[in-house]
Amino acid sequence: MMIALKDIMHKENTNAMNDAIQQFKNTFRDQHEFLNYFQQQWEPLHIIQCWAYSYVDPIQQVHLTNNFIESWHNQLKVIYLKHIRNKRFDRLIFILTNEVEFYFQQERAQILGNSG
């Protein structure tokens, strides 16, 4: 079942994704509880747009890789957390909302303004 769900997620074409969803439902039609859960929690269009590759801009798909996530995690630890091992959740939230968000807002403004 997990392999089929991953296959659905990685379809780059919405028609192929919809076909894969139908095939998934047909293959696992005896799993009534799971299919009801899937249809209610994961299949509505506004939700499917959040997790299916077919709704991600091809330019942004490069950011969905594990290497990108690992790189970002490393930057977060080195640049923003300065290698300090702190288990306080409120400090992490403060850094993310005040420093990291500010950085990305500035970077976005530079990109939109073609100024670097």
UniProtKB/TrEMBL annotation:
Which superkingdom is the protein from? Answer: Eukaryota
**Stored PANTHER family:** ZINC ION BINDING PROTEIN
What name is this protein filed under? Answer: MULE transposase domain-containing protein
Record organism: Phascolomyces articulosus
